[in-house]
Amino acid sequence: MDHHFVIRVVGKLLIPLVLLFALYVQFHGDYGPGGGFQAGVIFAAGFILYGLIYGLDTLRRVFPPWLVRLLVAFGVLIYAGTGIASMILGSKYLDYSVLGPTAAKGQHYGILIVEFGVGMTVASAMVLIFYSFAGRGRQTGEDFGEIDSEDRRDRPDG
Amino acid sequence: MFWAAMIGILVALALALVRAIAGPTVYDRILAVNSFGTLTVLALSVIGFLMGRPDFLDIALVYALINFIGTIAVLKFLRYGDFARATQADDNDLV
Prior knowledge:
Chain A has helices at 5-27, 36-54, 56-62, 65-88, 103-134, 149-154. By secondary structure, chain A is mainly α. Chain A has one domain (5-138). Chain B starts with a helix and ends in a 15-residue tail after the last helix.
C-alpha cells in the first residue's frame, strides 16, 4: 500500500536537476533572471522534495539540523564579512569596487560573493522552516539549539 | 502564431479554473490546479517569445519544478495528514 514507486523514482531523477538549476540561478543571476534569494528557495525545494518522499528523519540524516543552523548564520557572516573586507581594503562598507583589480571586476566579485551568502542563508532557513512545520508534535527539540530535557519540560509546546 | 497559441492556452486555463471551482471531489480540484500550473508554464514560455525575452524560459522551468513539488506536498498532506513520515515503511527495498 505504501510503495509509491513512481514518485520515488521520479523524485530521484528530479532532485539533482532541481539542485543544478538552483546553482544556475545563483551564479547566472547577473546575466539572466535570478539571484540569491530565488536560488536559495529552489535549492531548499530540492531538499524539501527529498524530505517529502523519504521522510523527515532521512532528511535530518542527510542535512543535520546543527549544519542547517550553522549555514543560516554563516551566510549572513559572508554578507557582512564582504562589507568588512571592503572597509579593510580602504573604502566604505559594502563598496565592492576595491575588491578586484578594477572597479568593474571588483563589483562583479562582490555581488557574486554577497549573493552566495544570501542564497546559503535563504536555503538553510527554508529547510529549517520545513523542519519546524513537518516536525510539529514530534519528540525532538534539536532544531532550535541544545535544549536539554529539563529545559524542554518548562515549555508548554516543547 | 504565438497569439493563436496564447489564446488556446487561455481557453484551457479557463476550463481548468472551472473544474477547480466546480470539482465535486478534492482530487478533481488538485488535478485542476496541477494542470493549471502546467498551462501556466506554457503561458510563461509563450509570453516570453511574444515579448521577445526568452529569459522567461528560466522562470517557466522554475514554475514547473515548484508546481510538481507543491502538488506532491498537498497530496501527501491529504493522504497522511503530516509531512514527516516516509512514503514507505521500510527504506531499504526496491530502490
